[in-house]
Amino acid sequence: MAETTFPVRLRNTRTEAGMSIRTLAAAAMLGPSAIVNYERDASSPSIEICYRLAVALRVSPAWLAYGSGPRLVPDLSRGH
Predict the structure, then answer these.
(1) Can you say whether residue 29 is alpha, beta or left, with left for phi > 0 and alpha for psi between -120 and 50 degrees?
(2) How far, in Å, CA of 3 to CA of 75, rounded?
(3) What is the residue-level pLDDT of the chain in tens, covering all 80 positions?
(4) Crossing angle for the helix pair 6-16 and 32-39, nearest 10 degrees?
């Protein structure tokens, strides 16, 4: 079960990352108005856009979209 709604997860994650709406929009290749609409729950992103937002915020796409699974993506660059 999701701990919060998508708009709340998006806004909280963005602010915790210290990103402005404009910064997140640029990182996800979106317009700032799209971020505002997602955070206000005025519209919902497609799966592709949700993925781009998650990558920009460095969180799991499944967690951002649905609130399921771990929030953070494992650091695969370190190898084993």
Answers:
(1) left
(2) 23
(3) 456 899 999 999 999 999 999 999 999 999 999 999 999 999 999 999 999 999 999 999 999 999 988 898 766 555 54
(4) 120
Residue 21: which H helix or E strand, with range? helix 21-27
Q: Distances in Å between the alpha carbon of 52 and those of 3, 35, 48, 79, 80?
A: 21, 12, 6, 24, 27
pTM: 0.87
Residue with tokens 């963005």: 14
Taking CA atoms, 14 is separated from 44, 59, 67, 80, in Å, by 16, 10, 15, 30
Distance, in Å, from the CA atom of 2 to the CA atom of 48, rounded to the nearest integer, reads 20
Residue with token string 């317009």:
31
Radius of gyration, CA atoms only, the chain? 12
Structure tokens at 16: 């915790």
